[in-house]
Every structure is written in structure tokens, then in C-alpha cells.
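Minimal example, chain plus magnesium ion.
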Amino acid sequence: MGLKIEEARVIVCCPGRNFVTLKIITNEGIYGLGDATLNGRELSVVSYLEDHVIPCLIGRDPHQIEDIWQFLYRGAYWRRGPITMSAIAAVDTALWDIKAKAAGLPLYQMLGGKSRTGVMVYGHANGRDIEETVEEVGRYIEIGYQAVRAQCGIPGLPSTYGVSNDKMFYEPADADLPSENIWSTSRYLDHVPKLFEKLRQVHGWDVHLLHDVHHRLTPIEAARLGQSLEPMRLFWLEDIVPAENQEGFRIIRNHTTTPLAVGEVFNTIWDCKNLIEEQLIDYIRSTVVHAGGITHLRRIADLAGLYHVKTGCHGATDLSPVCMGAALNFDLWVPNFGIQEYMRHAEVTDEVFPHHYYFSNGFLHPGESPVHGVDLDEKLAAKYPYQRAYLPVTRLEDGTMWNW
Ligand code: GCO
Ligand code: MG
């Protein structure tokens, strides 16, 4: 009779933070898991899956990954967008998981095998001021990281993106209603170069340093920041402007050789087509859960490869271990791999999502188990029900709404 999708359900839990997981179960008992977490908008994806996707899956052959992907994307008429693409990603990831399980192979083998021995990751160091941030970068280097993202408090601003009390874990979705951050571009642009000068003085040139601007600048301001950081040789400068206007990157590119990374909020290849084809960026940040799963991310990576753009998948804690497991298999295979973000999950998250991937000497390894290597303990998950949590919003010092 062959393999058939018999049942699919969505599991929402909050072990430390909210996660949405799709479980697809087949008539032969093999099941697959896919991450569908969209930070601050979790329940919209749940509804999309339960009300509009799952009814179409029952009875299908789970091996037909491409056809099911096309059915959910092309067949929906209303295409793209973060809710739709996260839902499609969850289905796609779960189906790849099933295919790998049925074959008895690790997922990276299904994609074409290993292109490298491990996946270089970067960690998140942050501090309230330069001194504390320099110390935190040192801690990451000590535990083996070869690449570290550095974020620092800005004098005169009460809070800043990326700076938290817990140094190994950062969760920005911190309130029942959006909290408000205050932003000043001039204070920021004056401070950040001082941080990286100090980091190079203290930690030298062997460590890769990264920084996330989190969509706060305009192209010409971004160009100035890129220029001022050139002597500090960053691995990348991330999300330097909001990227709806892909052409805006030409201004930045014309002024600086600091490498640019963008794309964690992109959902499809159309969001980065011009950026890639015009070689306006160096790293594409899209990842499995928000960009339509492995099937679509592979298309983005292949396009990027033609234009010397490497991958740098998003890996914040709001992406569940299921996404991380799938991303690591993808990273191990993808020929134009750059780096993988790795923000450690809370212990309780790891307990709910037992997994085979492990960190060693600055690299993550997906493990050799068949499938993507991540499971979900449903009984334990049930002990952590959903809690509404919003990402913050940002205002300028005069009260104007700005990009968070
Ligand atoms: C990153 C990201 C995250 C996002 C978060 C929002 O580079 O890791 O910018 O920190 O803010 O994923 O949900
Ligand atoms: Mg980012």
C-alpha cells in the first residue's frame, strides 16, 4: 500500500519560550517533526497549519516532498509571507525527516552527503558597556568559539538590542505586551567602532568578529558604519538596514568592503533575488523555518552560490532545536556554506527537544542518527503551556516609531 500520511498535529509549548512543532505521522508509524515557530506570532501559524494545511496532507505519500511543497505554495494562490512560509517549512522539514527515517540515513546524506567535517558556528557575546562585552567575548573564545558576535550597551540609551542579563541565553520576546526600546543613531554610530577597536586590541586577529545592527540604519548611515569598521576586519555586519528595498544596498556596497549579511526575516527567494544577483551581499541569513524549509532554502543557496554569496543561517533561540537539527544537516551539505548562528537554548528547551547535535571546538555536528536527529518529548512539553510573548518595539528619542 506504501507510505501514507495518516495524521498530523501541531504541538505548542513554552519550555523557556514558545515553540510550535508539526508532527506528521504515517500509516507505518514513522513520524517526522518540523519547526513552525514564528516569534510573537506563533498562534497564526498554528491556525494556518490546522485550518488550511493539515486537511490537505492526509492520505498523501510523504515521499512526494517536492509536489507537496508546490501544492502548498503554488496551489495556495495567496503566496509567500512569514505565516505561510513557516507553515510550509514545518511540513517540508517533517517530510524530509520521514524520508531520512525511512531510508535509515542522516538527513545530510539524503541531500548529497557531507561537504565538510563540521559546521562553524558563532556565539553571542554581549555586555552593558565595552569592558563587559570585551570580557564576554573572551569567555566565548575560552570555551572554543572561533567566531563571536559582539553587542554592547550604548551610553545614554536605557536598553539596546542584543544586550541581556543572562550571558549565554537571549530572549527578546520578553513581555505580555510589547516593551519599548529607545534608539539614537548618532549615539550608536559613535560608540560601535570603539567597541571593535578594543576587541581587536584585547583579543587579537584570530577570532572572527560579527555584529548585528538589527535594521536600525539608513543606507548612507550604514555605509558610514561599514567604512569605520573596515580596519577591524569584521566577518560580517548584519541587517544593517531593513531590506524591503533591495536596491538600497547599492549605496552601502559602493562605499564599504565590510562584508554584509542579511535575510533572517526573508521568506522566499524573491526577497533576496536582486541582493544576490547584483552581488550586494556576502551572506544570506535565511533559514529552514522561515524560508519554506529545506526544499526552498536549497534553491536560495544554489542561486547564492552562482554569485559568491555564502550561507549564514539564522539560529536564535526562537528557532526550535528541530530547526537547528535540520539546519545543521543542511549546513554540512551546502557547498557554499559560510557560518551558522548558534544561540544556546535553555536547559529546559533541550529537555523537551532531545537531540543528537553537539558542540565541539567552535563547531556543531548534527550527529549520525538517521533523520534530522531531533525529537519532542510530548508529555514533558504538555507541562509548559503557551504564554503570550511579544518582541519589543523601538522609538526614537522624540517618540517616533522606528524599526526594532
Ligand atoms: C539574530 C536575530 C535575533 C532576532 C530574533 C527575533 O541575529 O539572532 O536578530 O536575535 O532578534 O530572532 O525573533
Ligand atoms: Mg539578526
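The longest strand covers residues 5-13. Residues 212, 214, 238-239, 264 surround magnesium ion (ligand 2) (CB under 6 Å).
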